[in-house]
Amino acid sequence: MAAYLKRVHHISLHVSHAGSVVHDLVSKLKFDLFAARITDDARQFACRKGAAVFVVNERPRPRPHAGHPTLNGEETLRLGDKRYSHQHHHHHDDATTTGGCLYDVHSPYAVDTACNVCFEVRDVERSFRSLRDQGCDLLVPPTVVRDGDDGGGGAVTYTVVRSVVGNVRHTLLDKSGYEGHFLPGFKDIPNPGTEGGDADDPCPVTHFDHITYACQKKTSSHVMQWYARCFGFQRFFLESNEDEGEGYVLTGEDIGLRLTAMSYWKCSEAGMKLSFMDKKEPDCKFVMAESLPGQGSNQIDTFLKQHGGPGIQHIGLHTNDIVSTARTMAEAGVQFFSPPPTYYTEVDKCQEIAAAGHSPKSLAQHGILLDTDLRQGAHDQTTPNTDRRYLLQVFTKPIFTEETFFLELIERQGASGFGEGNIRALWRSVQSYMEKEKEESLWRRQCSERHQ
Length: 452
Ligand SMILES: O=C(O)C(=O)Cc1ccc(O)cc1
Ligand SMILES: [Fe+2]
What we know:
alpha+beta; ten-stranded mixed sheet; about 25% helix; binds 3-(4-hydroxy-phenyl)pyruvic acid; binds fe (ii) ion; iron; dioxygenase; 4OHPhenylPyrv_dOase
């Protein structure tokens, strides 16, 4: 029996300098810093835009004078062998918590990384048992956290399970008995006049649209099976003639990509109506991306190498107005990938952009791509513009030091998948950026050698 997921609660980042990442989230990406937990050995910051919440965790710095090598939380648990001794709930009072990162476990990878997709569940103890029975690796047994004396908002229970994708974990938490603002242990940070839902917000980011994993070659079906078995995820096809076993395969001179997509919310309890689920809340899709054999260097392999293994390659942030969002973020310093300029001068693409009510110029300014969903009879000239289904996307440049994790803005007008034209153009714009970077670093190296 799978564990039943209610919704994505937050996604956590594990970084070496939380301050600068939080600064970027707030000043460039227009998130609100609304809660923080700062203790002697942990710094955790929660930032929100709409329903999209990132928790930025600072990885502990090695302590030079410690009597024995510093272990991260994960190892400490393993050594303590507490993982399967769950007979009793572990009770934490935040005031006495010394175990560093709360609700999470530090990443074993050395680089900055997005590595925990935290879900709200109905029953943590039951989820824990079902995952343990499936043979999963539970990194934290069901644990109760209460607000300190001043809080009094109640308690939250959580457990952490390791996924089969690199360093990706899932915290499962139940906050149904909690009345505080975010989570016990976190202090609210009041934000004057930013409670969200503002009608003239220039950055109307609403929620996490999808999470894309970079996977090793030929592993997507294994990943899919794990999520289906453990969480009841269901496969959905990105293309009408997508092969069940092969996934959505994009090949060409400059692309060799296999995509497989899955979603969770309709299906976590097969055939049952889930009364606890807010049907109006959009789901977050999961996409697995792997490169095809025989390809030259590409963005998936670069991610795997620089990240140190599989993981979250990018996260799609849904916005109600991508042009305004991209403009506002660009003005604040966010850099976006652009397709070749010819993208916006091609006659067919220009017509497609105009038919969607946009101007090629305003899309070109920030490298925004548009893809019309052709399956919906969009070719039909009698179809009014409002019935056309299309989507707009743009990728940011990598947000950490390594060429690993980045964000995407996506505006959906009726189109639920990912357009082939957009995927090819996005892939190409990242490839040409990477090739330019490589050339430049080669050139810099030659220059410095010449000057020696
Ligand atoms: O199109 C999207 O948003 C995807 O998520 C598909 C995708 C996955 C990996 C890439 O490197 C490029 C595109
Ligand atoms: Fe994406």
